[in-house]
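Message: I would love a firmer grasp of how sequence relates to backbone shape in proteins. Thank you; the sequence and its tokens follow:
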Amino acid sequence: MLESTIIIDGRDHLLGRLASIVAKELLSGQKIVIVRCDEMAVSGSLVRNRVKYAQFRKKRTNPNPGKGPFHFKSPARMVWRTIRGMVHQKTSRGQDAIGRLSTFEGIPSPYDKKKRVVIPAALRILRLKTIRDYTVIGELADSVGWKHKDLLKRLEDQRKIKAQEFFEKKKSAALLKQKATAAAGDELAAVNKTLEAAGY
């Protein structure tokens, strides 16, 4: 069954595995947002992936390179392009599918205050042997010319401080509620008994 929008936290997911699962969902009509694309991973060392990216950047339209193919440097667009290649984008169905996808570096508003999910089938820790090298996409992008790594780190640090404050407040409120429920336990015993009898 389709949900309104699924927000996936891309941190420590393998690019290809996540992309294939997301592509399938997009084609079935699901809207998906992927955040923290800069912390996704690709198997292989940074040197190996830089060489592969350099080979990819050589591919161009010889008479007029302005006609493409276009080589994105930002992690979010790298992820978007990978998924685009899996949805048959030259058909109207594929175009509709890729239109349901949004990708972001970091966790921008309003997604920082919404529930995020992970995809166990694509997690690096479950799918890649611990002895294998891997590359974080943010590091690869930074090494090939992406210029916003420091800005993103600053914004993410600010977001994490706010998130921690919110969590502490939520935790203290839950503790107060727990204490209040325990204190009013005797008063609520009769009410609870009546509710249980009624099937609640």
About this structure: The helical segments are 15-27, 46-57, 75-84, 92-99, 124-127, 137-143, 149-183, 185-197.
